[in-house]
Amino acid sequence: MAHKEELGQLITLEQGKPLKEAIGEVSYGAGFIEFAAEEAKRVYGDIIPSPLPDRRLFVLKQPVGVVGAITPWNFPLAMITRKVGPALACGCTVVIKPSELTPLTALAAAQLSLEAGIPPGVVNVVMGNASGIGEALLNSPKVRKITFTGSTAVGKKLMAGSAETVKKVSLELGGNAPCIVFDDADLEVALKGTLATKFRNSGQTCVCANRILVQEGIYSKFADSFLKAVQDMKVGEGFGEGVVQGPLINEAAVQKVETLIQDAVSKGAKVVLGGKRHSLGMTFYEPTVITDVKNEMRISTEEVFGPVAPLLKFKTEEEAIHMANDTNAGLAAYIFTTNVQRSWRVSEALEYGIVGVNEGLVSTEVAPFGGVKQSGLGREGSKYGMDEYLEIKYVCLGNLS
């Protein structure tokens, strides 16, 4: 793959994640372009049998039009390709408004699109005042769709603003992912999966485990092993050898983590590892484990977006499902169990758009990504993600007899 290393280095420089993760993001992002290009051949219409002999009924799928794509800083390349790939495949032009924290990756992607043969004016990047650009996209009747990945609060504003011109909207918003470890889980699999989903990108993804629910029979064994594994995590700048945890994106992110931990401790939680800024300074934060966490604490009800693992204990399957669903969010959830019947029961009972069973890394271009409740609208990736950029037109041919 051309430019893989250069793009990975740019992501690490701009966003801070370890180089291995950044290069992985490049491959992940390229997957959406390849998949969408393949899927463009399968944007099928339909023929409907007519109830009248002199009519023929057809269904056409046509591009929705100009797309306004507002993308986040945590995956500055992949969140662009996940939106732009299907938009182009469906015949739409795109205006990208990248995060002001990671604009260079967006510019690099746009330049590479030109080099790949995309005509000028098809993929556009606009940088500057975020609210001003957002208002321009919302107010323009030429922009027929808004696609956004980011916070629930901003997503609600975009949804409301899109109503004035009745735009098509897809929103991938905040999560509050539960990771449920049952007594019958394979401990090694559960540890590996939980660590992966909690500490990926230093906890700065919308599908990171926000609450780790552990059944009481396995709690002590899991907590001890989990603590040891987190202690071994190497923190440092993204180009460092063996580094698995980089810095948080900015000072505001660190302060949010500190506030949530302080609230939890004031209500009875215990910090058993970390819980403070790293000795490296700047926006580095120690990987943190907190026990005695309750569902009503802010750290359980708000998206942490940091390297903090709250452990909560539960007794029964029913209690775990209730705790997991006790949130307005509904993006991703994870369960670890060797019981096939339980995996089906719990997967269907969880009010989430994505469920990982015995797996902590579930994202792929071939599967639909998106949430329910206040975690968003629509899906990205897979064949279902193509529909977000299409309008359905019904054509009736009459008087044919």
TrEMBL record:
The keyword Transmembrane helix does not apply. Its EC number is 1.2.1.24. GO terms for biological process: gamma-aminobutyric acid catabolic process. Pfam families: Aldedh. InterPro entries: Ald_DH/histidinol_DH (IPR016161), Ald_DH_C (IPR016163), Ald_DH_CS_CYS (IPR016160), Ald_DH_CS_GLU (IPR029510), Ald_DH_N (IPR016162), Aldehyde_DH_dom (IPR015590), Aldehyde_DH_Superfamily (IPR050740). It comes from the Eukaryota. It catalyses: succinate semialdehyde + NAD(+) + H2O = succinate + NADH + 2 H(+). Pathway: Amino-acid degradation; 4-aminobutanoate degradation. It is an enzyme of class 1 (oxidoreductase). Residues 2-395 form the Aldehyde dehydrogenase domain. Keywords: Oxidoreductase. PANTHER family: SUCCINATE-SEMIALDEHYDE DEHYDROGENASE, MITOCHONDRIAL (PTHR43353:SF5). Belongs to the aldehyde dehydrogenase family. This is Succinate-semialdehyde dehydrogenase, mitochondrial. The lineage of its organism: Eukaryota, Viridiplantae, Streptophyta, Embryophyta, Tracheophyta.
